[in-house]
């Protein structure tokens, strides 16, 4: 049976690296836990690190977090839907918002629950996902800052999440200027300028972060140690907090190309044979007990560099072990490092056991 393993020590070392990085620069930060898909075992591991703030995009996950640690500050990181508002007030201390209509409903529900709900106003900075347009920001702020039971804790933006727009120094300076405009116009203080995510960490390492950007939301860098500008691992961090283990259930020398009339496979793809292909070529293939129900093969990285992933069906994945220096037999375990999306699929699968090393 395939299973996913989290390495506690490597997670702790990544967390310590980031925590020191932020504290040295007087930056507050929270862990983005949506990758964990509400897995209680792994959420507990994160909370045991001493995390004071958790960000997630699923109310059910925030509910679990509050049950594990009622004192941790929970942040709902996408614009709330109308049907979710009672639960958001109950389980999220903070939410990210872009619609006056929604904030008014949050205000009414917070009053009913006798709570003060904090909000961050998200600003559109070019990535074209959620955010208030810059030219509308002052009017937007004016309409919401006096609503009862609502406290505006900051402004923020999301970059590199949809269109791939990078958080350059210029972009973050622009975000800082919005803070100055609001504070000057309304004679108030904006505590958070939440412009930092994993992708902005390289700017901070180069001391290119505008000082006003004082809040980060970090997920991918914590779990994968990745520099999202270069795709390399940040020096001093680990890229293998998660490892997938999958068992070999068949090994056979087989032709490299299918034999017979070809149609679409289970994933909707059609195999094409090149006219110059030598149909007599074969390779030593192994079948693993993990498939498309659990993962996407393009996001898996074999720990053994001599292994090649061929393809996968719903419940099985085929690998080519012809060039492997290590000899495999049925029942052996093959291990994979993961990219972010690879871990996300696996963590969202109930068929993959999750354990801690």
TrEMBL record:
Q: Which GO terms describe its cellular component?
A: cytosol
Protein name as it appears in the record: Amino-acid racemase
SUPFAM superfamilies listed in its UniProt record: PLP-binding barrel
The cofactor named in the record is: pyridoxal 5'-phosphate
The answer to whether keyword Isomerase applies is: yes
According to the entry, every stretch annotated as the Alanine racemase N-terminal domain falls at 7-225
- This protein's species is Flavobacterium sediminis
Q: Which UniProt keywords apply?
A: Isomerase, Pyridoxal phosphate
For this UniProt entry, the molecular function terms from Gene Ontology, in alphabetical order, are: alanine racemase activity; pyridoxal phosphate binding
The keyword Ligase appears for this protein: no
Question: Could you tell me which Pfam families the record lists for this protein?
Answer: Ala_racemase_N
